């Protein structure tokens, strides 16, 4: 009896699957009719990016990817799944508003790009603030639902995730779409497992858990279980791309997939031409650029300045420039400002400054610092180099593997304030003028590798090669 019941349930599931598949096929045909493209020779593309107009590095990736796709598939219908209503954008205004906003934010021209906007009403499901516990798992479930919702609203031939939502690919893949994912960072990595296993307190591993053997073991088991789910979801990705060698290496170690992961460096605002304009530099001004998030480790920069103050001949000033996303970031920036004042350090904190003010600071400064460990890539590091600053970055992650050639295009330091102070002191006073200028020029030339044009060319070529082979 049980066998008959199981067979009946299975038959019903199969019937539902084929009915949904037929409905999805009809919806695809409707998209081609609405976009005046009846040809089946060119695939339709859908880009999932919940907050498409937020103005961050991920959004720059989205719009550069859209432009690249339009260049190599000029006749393909394009769809963008985003939380348009949450951003206060009506669907009938989405294309024009996007063109205006993207030009203002990134200087990108979407005049020749048209797309069908689809509103996703479940963006809150991937917000980590919604889940104080089991955050990774619950975000993954939210991404699965988001992928189903987006694909059901408007099915496409090629479903592209540009928001690091690998779990969103499950439904599109199940219903026959080819899937693409641009991975900004691995959702779970071997580094995360190592931090928990060795019981080290970090921004993503609280001291309370690090001190407890039982809690550390439980968290480690949770991470291992989630890593298997993540690897399973990755099986649904046909064309994986990573933003750096560091990210690619971690995906290869965590994912079960044997399809090669393409390294496609993110598009960076490399304004090298501006840096060549004659502008007097303050040889004692140090700049750091990065959001005031815990992992950016601005506290190390304060310790570095304290060590630099021990060099009596140096009168260096540090300008911390960064954005704040919420009240926690704002409080963190204010705490840094107060600590610098209490310790008598020559440190200024600038929050959410204009793009022009940032450019002025980068033209005037002499040295740039970046203190995040295991930065997946490091767009701000590229920007520092592009403006001709001698850049001191952390000896880890994409900064070490892809951006800074130590002693040639910049300098690398470890985890200690002493080493950062030593490298900054060397950049400020330890080099000859000829060596300093050579490093500036080498850094600027290196930054050109990560331009928007380079990203678009590589992204487009990967699509052509892998979609054609499919």
From TrEMBL:
Domain ALG11 mannosyltransferase N-terminal: 44-255
Subcellular location: Endoplasmic reticulum membrane
Membrane topology: Single-pass membrane protein
A GO CC term attached to the entry: endoplasmic reticulum membrane
Catalytic activity field: an alpha-D-Man-(1->3)-[alpha-D-Man-(1->6)]-beta-D-Man-(1->4)-beta-D-GlcNAc-(1->4)-alpha-D-GlcNAc-diphospho-di-trans,poly-cis-dolichol + 2 GDP-alpha-D-mannose = an alpha-D-Man-(1->2)-alpha-D-Man-(1->2)-alpha-D-Man-(1->3)-[alpha-D-Man-(1->6)]-beta-D-Man-(1->4)-beta-D-GlcNAc-(1->4)-alpha-D-GlcNAc-diphospho-di-trans,poly-cis-dolichol + 2 GDP + 2 H(+)
Gene3D superfamilies reported for this sequence: Glycogen Phosphorylase B
Residue ranges of the TM segments: 6-24
Main location, first listed in the record: endoplasmic reticulum
One BP annotation, GO: protein N-linked glycosylation
GO molecular function annotation: GDP-Man:Man(3)GlcNAc(2)-PP-Dol alpha-1,2-mannosyltransferase activity
Involved pathway(s): Protein modification; protein glycosylation
Residue ranges constituting the Glycosyl transferase family domain according to the UniProt record: 278-443
SUPFAM superfamilies given in the database record: UDP-Glycosyltransferase/glycogen phosphorylase
The EC number(s) this enzyme carries: 2.4.1.131
Keywords assigned by UniProt, alphabetized: Endoplasmic reticulum, Glycosyltransferase, Membrane, Transferase, Transmembrane, Transmembrane helix
Family annotation (Pfam families): ALG11_N, Glycos_transf_1
Protein name from the UniProt record: GDP-Man:Man(3)GlcNAc(2)-PP-Dol alpha-1,2-mannosyltransferase
């Amino acid at each position: 009896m049980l066998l008959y019941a199981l067979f009946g349930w299975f038959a019903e599931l199969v019937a539902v699957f084929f009915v949904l598949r037929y409905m999805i096929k009809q919806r695809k045909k409707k998209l081609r009719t609405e976009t005046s493209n009846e040809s089946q020779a060119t695939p339709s593309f859908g880009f999932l990016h919940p907050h498409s107009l937020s103005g961050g590095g991920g959004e720059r990736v989205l719009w550069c990817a859209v432009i690249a796709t339009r260049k190599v598939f000029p006749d393909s219908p394009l769809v963008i799944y985003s939380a348009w209503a949450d951003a206060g954008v009506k669907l009938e205004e989405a294309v024009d508003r996007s063109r205006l906003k993207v030009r203002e934010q990134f200087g990108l021209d979407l005049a020749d790009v048209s797309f069908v906007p689809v509103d996703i009403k479940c963006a809150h499901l991937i917000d980590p603030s919604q889940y104080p516990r089991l955050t990774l798992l619950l975000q993954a479930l939210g991404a699965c639902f988001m992928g189903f919702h987006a694909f059901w609203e408007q099915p496409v031939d090629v479903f592209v995730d540009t928001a690091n939502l690998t779990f969103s690919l499950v439904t599109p893949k199940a219903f026959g779409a080819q899937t693409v994912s641009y991975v900004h960072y691995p959702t779970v990595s071997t580094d995360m497992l190592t931090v928990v296993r060795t019981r080290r307190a970090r921004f993503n591993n609280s001291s309370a858990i690090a001190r407890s053997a039982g809690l550390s073991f439980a968290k480690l088991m949770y991470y291992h279980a989630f890593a298997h789910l993540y690897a399973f979801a990755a099986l649904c990705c046909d064309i994986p791309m990573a933003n750096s060698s560091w990210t690619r290496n971690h995906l290869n170690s965590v994912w079960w997939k044997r399809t090669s992961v393409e390294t496609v460096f993110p598009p960076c605002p490399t304004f090298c031409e501006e840096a060549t304009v004659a502008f007097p530099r303050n040889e004692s001004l140090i700049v750091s650029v990065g959001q005031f998030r815990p992992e950016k480790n601005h506290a190390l920069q304060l310790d570095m300045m304290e060590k630099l103050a021990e060099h009596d001949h140096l009168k260096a000033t540090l300008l911390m420039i960064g954005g704040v996303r919420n009240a926690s970031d704002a409080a963190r920036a204010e705490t840094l400002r107060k600590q610098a004042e209490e310790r008598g350090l020559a440190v200024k904190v600038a929050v959410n400054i204009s793009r022009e003010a940032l450019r002025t600071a980068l033209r005037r400064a002499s040295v740039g610092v970046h203190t995040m460990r295991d930065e997946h890539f490091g767009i701000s590091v590229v920007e520092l180099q592009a403006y001709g600053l001698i850049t001191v970055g952390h000896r880890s992650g994409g900064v070490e593997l892809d951006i800074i050639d130590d002693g040639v295009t910049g300098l690398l330091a470890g985890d200690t304030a002493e080493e950062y102070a030593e490298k900054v002191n060397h950049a400020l006073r330890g080099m000859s003028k000829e060596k300093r200028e050579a490093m500036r020029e080498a850094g600027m030339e290196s930054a050109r590798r990560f331009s928007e044009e380079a990203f678009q060319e590589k992204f487009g070529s990967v699509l052509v090669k892998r979609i054609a082979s499919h």
